[in-house]
Amino acid sequence: xxxxxxxxxxxxxxxxxxxxxxxxNTLNKCLENHLLKEAVSFHTxxxxxxxxxxxxxxxxxxxxxxxxxxxxxxxxxxxxxxxxNRIAKTWDAEDSIISVNGASNAILAALLAVAPRGDRxxxxxxxxxxxxxxxxxxxxxxxxxxxxxxxxxxxWADVEPVQFAQAVEDEIAKNGAAGIAGAVxxxxxxxxxxxxxxxxxxxxxxxxxxxIVDEAHGAHFLTSQTRRLSGLASGAxxxxxxFHKNLDAFTQCGAVHISHDGARNFGFSASELRAALxxxxxxxxSYLLLRSIDExxxxxxxxxxxxxxxxxxxxxxxxxxxxxxxxxxxxxxSQFASSPFHILFRKEGLTSExxxxxxxxxGVFAEGCFGDAILLMLGVGTxxxxxxxxxxxxxxxxxxxSSVRALKQRHAKPAPLQQVISPRQAVLGKKRxxxxxxxxxxVAAECVSSCPPGWPxxxxxxxxxxxxxxxxxxxxxxxxDSEF
Length: 484
Ligand SMILES: Cc1ncc(COP(=O)(O)O)c(C=O)c1O
Hints:
four-stranded antiparallel sheet, seven-stranded mixed sheet, single chain
């Protein structure tokens, strides 16, 4: 449950003047410096530092371990089993398995759970890098498919069902249907684009393979207006959530859900997902994280968070309208549907870095820069005053003469990815490290991906094309030490 505005503590201007994360500072000092500077958060986590239950309690007392009465997350039988049942009830899943290593670990578990079904898997180009790790762990051969490319904004958006159906038909015509383990979909995307999950689930099921939805950014689809957008309400089989992006659990909390369809049609079970999750999750899950999930759930169960979510949707709509009304300011619009909590906007005459710092200089921190735009992330902790501060600032920000560059530039769609060997072969094989200038034509043996957006620029096993070799994200690259 979030604090009200009057309960908040803000930094004095004297304190603000000291802000500087000098070399040699401890992390703690850097965190404190940041907190002095930050007045408004438009980044994750969704609680925005306004968790009421943490204020009056000495929360380090709750940093405990598997003591009598506290259950064991790797084999929950008591209170943690009830916690998972409450999660399943809230999202209407057959079973839900908690991850205290975020959606990242839950994605690995989902991929490992489908691995016995086959060694080929449909993966979108905007997969989070944890999917790439899942390809390595599961030994999959990825069948890459393209979501819609938004050339005005330079981003991967939703997946058009017709395009996906075509990718499936092409693959089956080429290599047959046997050995297809499943498909992965990201919905909503990092920038809030939602796909018609129902249509994709139908295509997968027509060909008898399951659909995994990376819904890390959609755990908040719980209101009457948004539930229909969720994978669990749309026939997907395994659905992965982060509980910290827009909801108010601590960072690193998440879950993998088995839908009723997934259990019935593909026989997924909690024990198999848990075993998969345990291969990469700590055997000492933090009870602080687990407690924060408990608090998040209690507030969902009383209806308080649902009210906050509904209010948050109105805030998101209001923010978009206000931003779009400011001169030279443009908000991204999704094609199929969008998450009300993800707002991407740009201002002509400012690079995204300039826009980001014009806001952060006044204590307003966005989630990050994204091409020419910046991404704002709302959460259950967002309050109207946050929006007022941001909107007032955006009205005052002047374009910079130095950066009057062509914002209407088109961003070319990334070229098809040439997967020469499987990610696992590339990562586990013999490799060498080369300078950027020597990478062209080699086969990558590692994933290169900057966060945000967390999708890969280079995938292990991919031939390094000229386009990829020119990307700014690496200076050195580990490549496979043989000719292809
Ligand atoms: C699309 C997507 N999937 C998965 C993840 C991983 O989520 P987590 O941070 O909970 O591990 C992220 C993180 O930003 C993401 O953007």
